[in-house]
């Protein structure tokens, strides 16, 4: 096998981080205009990947003033026990919280990135999926924009702090007019049984 065949084989086996992004206002703002969407980009494993607002200090930039200049970093590493390239995630924001699968990370704290992780900061959600490879010196990253929040798809919803008004069930229509006019009520089995 010659050198070019070896390189081609190694390229085919690169670890890839699939980063799927979501923001509730992504359709009306150009938040992802600086990202290489739907295209694999290759990176050296010895340099951390940074994501933030500052395009000069970060590998990837989000066009959003609410994002920290440096929001987070992904660091590649290997262990003697495994041929896989693994990653840690680190919170670089002094003012913003970062959570990984509902575990909060404070400023400069880091943790191992699971093979599938839901990352949250501000209103952003990122689903990162690691596709294993065997190459030792580099890996790939591919960005994609999701139409639906990944927390809804992965059942990792965090309860909203905004109260949701209950409009009642169909049983409300069977109540006397004076009770219906009071507005939303809690469902009470005794009221439902009296109709």
- Low-confidence spans: 1-11, 158-172, 184-195
The structural class is: mainly beta
Write down the overall mean pLDDT: 80
**Widest beta sheet: strand line-up:** 2-12-1-11-10-7-8
- Residue share in helix: 10-25%
Helix count, per DSSP? 4
Tell me, briefly, the overall form.
Answer: globular
What is the N-to-C order of secondary-structure elements (H for helix, E for strand)? HEEEEEEEEEEEEHHH
Oligomer: single chain
Main sheet record: 7 strands, mixed
Number of DSSP strands? 12
What share of the residues does DSSP label as strand, in percent? 25-35%
Features:
195 residues; five-stranded mixed sheet; 12 strands; 35% strand
Which helices and strands appear, and what pairs or packs with what?
Blueprint: H1 3-12, E1 15-22, E2 40-44, E3 49-52, E4 60-61, E5 72-79, E6 82-91, E7 98-100, E8 103-105, E9 110-112, E10 116-121, E11 124-131, E12 138-145, H2 150-153, H3 177-180, H4 189-193
Parallel strand pairs: 1-12, 3-4
Antiparallel strand pairs: 1-11, 2-12, 3-5, 5-6, 6-9, 7-8, 7-10, 10-11
Protein described:
The chain is built from four helices and twelve strands, in the order αββββββββββββααα. The protein starts with a helix and ends with a helix. The chain has a seven-stranded mixed beta sheet with strand order 2-12-1-11-10-7-8, with no helix packed on it. The chain has a five-stranded mixed beta sheet with strand order 4-3-5-6-9, with no helix packed on it. The protein has helices spanning 3-12, 150-153, 177-180, 189-193, and strands at residues 15-22, 40-44, 49-52, 60-61, 72-79, 82-91, 98-100, 103-105, 110-112, 116-121, 124-131, 138-145. 12% of the residues lie in helices and 35% in strands. It is mainly beta. The protein is globular and about 45 Å long.
């Amino acid at each position: 096998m010659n050198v070019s065949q070896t390189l081609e084989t190694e390229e085919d086996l690169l670890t890839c981080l699939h980063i799927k992004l979501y923001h509730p206002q992504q359709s009306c703002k150009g938040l992802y205009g600086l990202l290489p969407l739907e295209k694999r980009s290759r990176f050296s494993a010895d340099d951390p990947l940074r994501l933030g607002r500052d395009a000069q200090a970060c590998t990837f930039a989000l066009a959003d003033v609410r994002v920290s200049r440096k929001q987070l970093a992904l660091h590649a590493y290997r262990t003697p026990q495994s041929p896989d390239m693994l990653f840690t995630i680190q919170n670089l924001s002094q003012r913003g919280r970062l959570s990984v699968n509902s575990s909060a990370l404070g400023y400069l704290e880091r943790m191992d990135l699971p093979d599938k992780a839901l990352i949250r900061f501000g209103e952003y959600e990122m689903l990162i999926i690691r596709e294993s490879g065997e190459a030792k010196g580099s890996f790939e990253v591919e960005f994609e924009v999701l139409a639906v929040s990944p927390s809804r798809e992965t059942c990792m919803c965090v309860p909203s702090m905004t109260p949701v008004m209950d409009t009642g069930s169909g049983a409300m229509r069977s109540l006397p007019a004076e009770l219906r006019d009071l507005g939303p009520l809690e469902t009470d089995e005794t009221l439902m049984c009296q109709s």
